[in-house]
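Exercise: predict the structure of this protein bound to zinc ion.
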Amino acid sequence: MLTLAHELGHGIHAYLARPQGIFQQGTPLTLAETASVFGETVTFGRLLDGVDDPGDRFPLLAENLEGQIATVFRQIAMNRFEDAVHTERRGVGELSVERFGELWLDSQRHMLGDGVEVTENYSTWWSYIPHFIHTPGYVYAYAYGQLLALSVYARYEAEGASFVPAYLDMLAAGGSKSPQALGRMVGVDLGDPTFWDGGLDIIERLLVDAEASARAAGLLA
Ligand SMILES: [Zn+2]
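Solution:
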């Protein structure tokens, strides 16, 4: 159901932006997930509202958090790896495969903390991410797009129905304006660091809710 809501968001975005024509209908990746994540978040909220039993709420919340971790925190950890590789290559010269592995393990351990034991065999796993080779500097856009979409949703939560007309206008603008200008249409300033906190706050609320549900269901001491 959430996948359907996600893809329907893309459909609505493309449909509303069709007067822009073929060159400006599509948005850059940074904004491409706005309508899809927005639709998914609305639908998820509705699903969750309909579930009272903590044992049923927990898997819903855990599944959602897994997705947030994969899209926001994991992509940032990959970006940190990529940045470290390129920076060291410029300063030191050609890097060995072993050095790639060390930088990968460092960045991934930094993200996982003491939650997961990262073993040596994981050191080669940077090599399965095609973006590092084919579209360098790309992976940040997943985290950027997700947090942007959640932050736009946070504006909707704060403003309610009065937010909707500006939101629809923004979708209808497609890719005809810069990300900053599209953001301004819904009253958000992409240059303001506190704007991003709106998205992170939503993730934190999910975590608090997941922990409370796990405790209430007797799954967590
Ligand atoms: Zn999508």
